[in-house]
Amino acid sequence: MDNTIGEEYIKSSLSAKVFTRIQDDILNGVFKPGERLAETALSSILGVSRTPIREALKQLELEGLVKVIPNKGAIVTGVSNKDINDIYTIRKLIEGLAARWAANNITSQELDTLSETLALEQYYIEKNDVTHLLKYDSMFHDTLFSASKSNPLMFVLKTFHMYVQRSRNYALSHPERARMVHDEHKAILDALIERDADKAEKLMIEHITNASRYTIKN
């Protein structure tokens, strides 16, 4: 590999990692709305130069998570309650569509993966292990998205899931909601097994509606 190309790849990869780390911290509430993100402090915390920090903050501004103010730096704007409500409304539409398409296109292997995921969800519900519940909740949805056989739809859906990460963490920390999620996933899986597109779409919309009721209200 040409040295110049190699250096640019390393810089790009580092900026992406820095962006993801700061983004996660904003979405998870580590950095609060109104908080100033100083390049020097972030550089020290993350152990990188200010260049990837600056590039990450520019990208975060495009994402609407920070606002860069001249002579003041980057200020966290975060995700508002209106943003979250809008995201859930859109999710009901597009995840319902994903479930409909998945009912028509899902493979036997993907159905087996969903069944295994539900078994693991049940196991970690009994353990009250929120970290693993989040992992398998995401796996359930990711597998269903993949089963839709639509790359554009998968991209949009994964973006929305990223933005509701904090509220999902909050919801699944409640044993009552965790059990509801498992039951709702099971009903959706049954509809997929039956290849019932109407039922799969309806159940997914109900699932997202129920999830929205556990959204964090700041």
What does this structure look like?
By secondary structure, the chain is mainly α. The chain has helices at 3-27, 39-46, 50-62, 81-105, 108-127, 130-147, 151-163, 165-172, 175-193, 197-212; strands spanning 36-37, 66-69, 73-76. It has 2 domains: 3-76, Arc Repressor Mutant, subunit A (Orthogonal Bundle), CATH 1.10.10; 81-212, Up-down Bundle (Four Helix Bundle (Hemerythrin (Met), subunit A)). Helices cover 76% and strands 5% of the residues. The radius of gyration is 20 Å and the shape is elongated.
Layout of SSEs?
Blueprint: H1 3-27, E1 36-37, H2 39-46, H3 50-62, E2 66-69, E3 73-76, H4 81-105, H5 108-127, H6 130-147, H7 151-163, H8 165-172, H9 175-193, H10 197-212
Antiparallel strand pairs: 1-3, 2-3
Helix pairs in contact: 1-3, 4-6, 4-7, 4-9, 4-10, 5-6, 5-9, 6-7, 9-10
